[in-house]
Specification:
about 110 residues; alpha+beta; 3 helices; about 25% helix
């Protein structure tokens, strides 16, 4: 069993935070909370600011946790350099498997 704090712990370990910039991108439902969480990380690459957003959502039909990564240069029009996603079965999920999945996403070019 995992909780929101479990996910936050793993993503903080990998340099991401659930900050106010991304609160507007989080989707909440009338009968369910936290249908989508969005974490962010800012860094400098060649003197340009790069924003990485990690989207976390659940696919109930397939019983998977879906992680999506978008990396973009904030000062460049159409500055997206990475747009990818991966998923893991909810029954297979633990802290190690989630950490490995996040590391796979972050290694995407």
């Amino acid at each position: 069993m995992f909780t929101k704090t479990f996910i936050i712990k793993v993503l903080k370990k990998n340099g991401f935070s659930l900050d106010k910039d991304c609160q507007s991108l989080c989707i909440h439902g009338d009968y369910a909370r936290n249908l989508q969480l969005v974490f962010s990380n800012r860094s400098q690459v060649n003197d340009l600011e790069m924003l990485s957003r990690l989207y976390v959502a659940v696919n109930l039909y397939r019983e998977t946790l879906v992680l999506g990564l978008i990396r973009e240069f904030t000062s460049v029009a159409n500055g997206v350099v990475v747009n990818t996603s991966r998923s893991i079965g909810l029954s297979d999920m633990n802290e190690d498997s989630l950490d490995k999945l996040v590391k796979k996403l972050l290694s995407a070019n």
